[in-house]
Write a structure and sequence with these properties.
77 residues, alpha+beta, 3 helices, 3 strands
Length: 77
Amino acid sequence: MNSELDIIDNLVELERFLLSVEDGSLGLNNVEGVGLATNNADGRHFVAVFDKSQKLLFSKWVTKEVFESGKDMVRNG
């Protein structure tokens, strides 16, 4: 996971993150999808970038509010 201090805490930041994944500015290869998920160990939420095998390529913590209100943004791109 990214830095513990680097948490997406609003929808503008989430949109900025999604656009950076889409335009390739994060330098990730073979990106096939993005989703919101919950860490089973501690219940924290994160946005995840996956390859075609559903392997996690990159992730970033999000607040509970972003997790709840950003679902449509992540789902619909």
